[in-house]
Amino acid sequence: MESQDTVETINRHKQLGLSDGQVIDMYRYMLLARKYDERSLLLQRAGKINFHVSGIGQEAGQVAAAFALDRQNDYFLPYYRDYAFVLSVGMTTRELMLSVFAKAEDPNSGGRQMPGHFGSKRLRIVTGSSPVTTQVPHAVGFALAAKMQKKKFVSFVTFGEGSSNQGDFHEACNFAGVNKLPVIIMCQNNQYAISIPAHKQLGGKVSDRALGYGFPGVRVDGNDPLEVYRVVKEARERALAGEGPTLIEAMMYRLSPHSTSDNDLAYRTKEEVDENWKKDGVAGFRNYLIGLGLWSDEQEQDLIAECNLELKAAIEYADNAPFPKPEDTLLHVYSDSDLKGGA
Amino acid sequence: MAIMEYIDAIRLAMKEEMERDKSVFVLGEDVGLKGGVFTTTKGLQEQFGEERVLDTPLAESAIAGVAIGAAMYGMKPIAEMQYSDFMLPATNQIISEAAKIRYRSNNDWNCPVVIRAPIGGGVFGGLYHSQCPESIFFGTPGLKIVAPYSAYDAKGLLKAAVRDPDPVLFFENKKCYKLIKEEVPEGDYTVPIGEANLLRQGTDITVIGYSLPLHFAMQAAEELEREEGITAHILDLRTLQPLDRDAIIAAARQTGKVLIVHEDNKTGGIGGEVAAIIAEHCLFELDAPIFRLCGPDVPAMPISPPMEKFFMLSKEKVKAEMLRLAQY
């Protein structure tokens, strides 16, 4: 039997309504997020910053979800690995670096929160915290407001499969199901909750739980951005049509350790990680674009250079930006200027 | 002016605020068709519809969390916890989320939610329908906590809470619902959050407290004046957080003898903080040690009548302690 040198790539994005320009844009965000993540890890290892929590391995699905939403109107409640998502909805690498360096100008929190705790009213990214899954009821609250005010937006919330075990997940899903609210609830199942593998977190599938809440649950290959795009788009259409929530379980793999404070090889093998690198969604999407003749090695090199340049400028800016004033610790406890914190 | 019960004043406050502002809505268990297990929201669904008086699934963290989300969008939710004893599943939402939203976002987002919860015993509610959980939330900066004593304050404070741009816990006393009847204006007024209220002027002893036990103190003060010629200066904190320090210090200085009363148990209660404020600012103006009369340090109130009576404060208990302080 003769083997073929090349397999013909079928254009899958056209039928989803995505232009060539849009899929290239998607890829640019994926790569930018990957480079941002790698650079943050280096900054931490070099002692320039204190902490980094990685989203490597999850970029493809995150970007795809963002592109399927209305980035001018919808409300977003991302979780701490969603760098590619927040970049896709308008946050800049400078803004992310200001957060990483905990500087006053950080729009997420003014240097108050750990990196990965996103928030920006301008971008309709709702402020988040560290106790996991608390954002799911908030997303349902935004969706309730949309329904009550008859506004044409949806809320979109993400979290990990470990977090899907919290009561807030179940309470919020049920509330959304009862009231048929326009919310898209997306679990990024990256197979690990710090060290605990999915089979010790979940007795079944996260997506199957939707049955009990009375709305559709869809499991999708999170490394396939076009599939993620399709299911999020359909979920959004259902939400706007008044048909209620959708639960999406995007299957991924956390290629990095949990955070810069974690040694993942204490609980998983290098072989397992290497095997999953082969399924990396970013590389897969690059190959897809190359297969269609939409991308080339040359463009890849140019984009990497561009990302590096942008990141270098962002780091320089953030590194040189002033810290918050120490006494500003007392600000913004309440709206009233005379009700500052402190004794 | 109309004579109304404490519970009517709370209902009227919600009704008026919902009429005034379309973004105000009520959510909780049984608040809709039934009108609340105590009838606090009776008639509201009839007037404002199912969406704005929303019966929710039985899940307190979702009630709080969904309200918080809606509030961040710009709605003005009033979330009801059926009993304050059942609000603990929502503490993560209240303490980790609502209280920190403005601070953690560097003033970008805020959370104007009101969470109402009935507190207190004396209704044969047993351990889990009688608690005073103020001290669980007290000391969480970012939260405001109010606990009205009178019907007038209940209406004015709830209206102020709805208009407040930050999260407010509204602890209404369930024993006061029907017990307290007084003149309450039907028109619009608010009682400012953060200001204590002097209920009574006196020169011999100062009583500081909040909610139901102040009614005992007021009755005891009248009797002590009549019987012993002792005059009591009585301060209603009204807002538990942030405490009105100036009013506390002034009230303590007024007589140099201070009794603090609350139904929440003594250890870790708000009275400890009030005592500390007095000690920090006017210790050497005191003529007696600070007295505290509070619920006993047991997990919660038993249902058996003699045990409930033992736990609860009363006019007699407060009066005896006031007299002991006056004679110190």
Automatic annotation (TrEMBL), chain A:
- What InterPro entries does the database record attribute to this sequence? Alpha-ketoacid_DH_E1_comp, DH_E1, THDP-binding
Q: Which UniProt keywords apply?
A: Oxidoreductase, Thiamine pyrophosphate
Which prosthetic group or cofactor does it need?
thiamine diphosphate
The segment(s) forming the Dehydrogenase E1 component domain are 27-327
According to its UniProt record, which reaction does this protein catalyse? N(6)-[(R)-lipoyl]-L-lysyl-[protein] + 3-methyl-2-oxobutanoate + H(+) = N(6)-[(R)-S(8)-2-methylpropanoyldihydrolipoyl]-L-lysyl-[protein] + CO2
Report the coiled-coil segments. Answer: none
Tell me the Pfam families matching this sequence.
Answer: E1_dh (PF00676)
Q: Which GO terms describe its molecular function?
A: branched-chain 2-oxo acid dehydrogenase activity
Query: What's the Enzyme Commission number for this chain?
Result: 1.2.4.4
- Identify the domain of life: Bacteria
At the top of the EC hierarchy, this enzyme's class is oxidoreductase
Question: What are the BP-aspect GO terms?
Answer: branched-chain amino acid catabolic process
> What does the record give as the function of this protein?
The branched-chain alpha-keto dehydrogenase complex catalyzes the overall conversion of alpha-keto acids to acyl-CoA and CO(2). It contains multiple copies of three enzymatic components: branched-chain alpha-keto acid decarboxylase (E1), lipoamide acyltransferase (E2) and lipoamide dehydrogenase (E3).
For this chain, the family text in UniProt reads:
Belongs to the BCKDHA family.
* Protein name, UniProt field: 2-oxoisovalerate dehydrogenase subunit alpha
- Give the species: Paenibacillus etheri
UniProtKB/TrEMBL annotation, chain B:
Listed A to Z, the keywords are: Oxidoreductase, Thiamine pyrophosphate
Instruction: Report the residue ranges that make up the Transketolase-like pyrimidine-binding domain in this protein.
Output: 4-179
- Species in which this protein is naturally found: Paenibacillus etheri
Key word Ion transport present in the record?
A: no
InterPro entries named in the record: THDP-binding (IPR029061), Transketo_C/PFOR_II (IPR009014), Transketolase-like_Pyr-bd (IPR005475), Transketolase_C (IPR033248)
Is Transport among the key words of this record? no
Protein name in UniProt: 2-oxoisovalerate dehydrogenase
Mind telling me which NCBIfam families this protein's record contains?
PRK09212.1 (NF006667)
MF terms per GO, please? oxidoreductase activity
Q: Which CDD domains match?
A: TPP_PYR_E1-PDHc-beta_like
* Required cofactor(s): thiamine diphosphate
Pfam families tied to this protein: Transket_pyr, Transketolase_C
